[in-house]
Amino acid sequence: MSLSPRIALIRIAIATINHMSSATGADSMSKPAAASSSDDSDQMSFSISQQVERVVADSLIEIETLDEASRNQTAAYRTLKGRAEAELISFDTPDHRVAYIRVYVRSHALMLTQVLQQCKVASDALLEVWKRGERLDVVSVGGGPGSDVLGVCKFAEMNHCMARGCVSFVILDRQTDWMYDWLSVTKKMPAYFHSTYGHFDASNANDVAKCPKLFSDCHLVTMVKFASAIHASNPVPFYTAMFDALRPGTIVVLVDNWCPANREDSFTTDCKKAADKAGMTCLLKNSAMEVMSETYENELAELASAIKLSQGNNHHKPYYGKKMLVYVWMKPTSAPVAPAEDQKPL
Predict the structure, then answer these.
(1) Using one digit for the tens of pLDDT, what is the confidence trace for 103-125?
(2) What whole-number distance in Å separates Cα of residue 114 and Cα of residue 121?
(3) In angstroms, how far is CA 254 from the centroid of its own chain?
(4) pLDDT tens digits, residue range 163-197?
(5) Given 179, 194, 210, 267, which residue has the most CB atoms within 10 angstroms?
(6) In whole angstroms, what separates CA 157 from the centre of its chain?
(7) Cα–Cα distance between 87 and 76 in angstroms, integer?
């Protein structure tokens, strides 16, 4: 029986990623040692904007088409008002996915970088992995667009740890077609990070049953703009299974849309309750963290330049929040970890 074109493409993409991984000695099971953070000879400069622009250029999609898709997404974001993102935003077509990457992924990636930098306990724990010469294993939930990957890589670069074999990502998303959009990046950087895409629907019981295998051996779990997208689909079983599966010392970062305090619980209560039930230590909680700082001046300048879309009647301003809702947890170790005292409580 001949394969459908879609299945054939999936197999080709997976084979490509696996080939790149084997060429560098990295796969989803092995853990090659990363270069020590003190070894500057193997460090690389990492620009979020360069990776995003590479995706846009390699997509070969007309700018006018991307502009139209961006306008549709912006209009949808402005009318979310607490509703599930999945109800209004579709990523079924390449133009909508690449438009989203082009306009929003930079800012979401920098949000994650900012949180990792500002939460000292989490930052120190992650940097300690690299100091030991180990690879940092990350599970990105709903991370198909790539913001989590870019945000962690930028964090590594800012701390002089962006060395060969330094990070491995398992990217879980119910829309795995994002994998094709990012092949242009992953095929050029396999020596520095390894990425594996997996179809995962947090509202599906069969997928939730895989949590013990997916989350039991990672150092970091990221959920950027995930809680607001899944909250209408009964995420309680997923959150419970995910937190229960974590090993001691694992860091969990939730970054999402800011909203007034009386509405914030609409999409984070389930996650907070599951974290408390699992005995997670809350390292940072901030319902209105100001987005960005002078640290990211160059990236922000490139972002401002890149999103100058069509002028005239077609011009629109992308919807960026100036504040973000943040939680950072750690699975308790034998030594209790005190929450950060300098963070604004909810």
Answers:
(1) 888 888 988 999 999 999 999 99
(2) 14
(3) 10
(4) 878 999 999 999 989 988 888 777 666 567 888 99
(5) 194
(6) 16
(7) 10
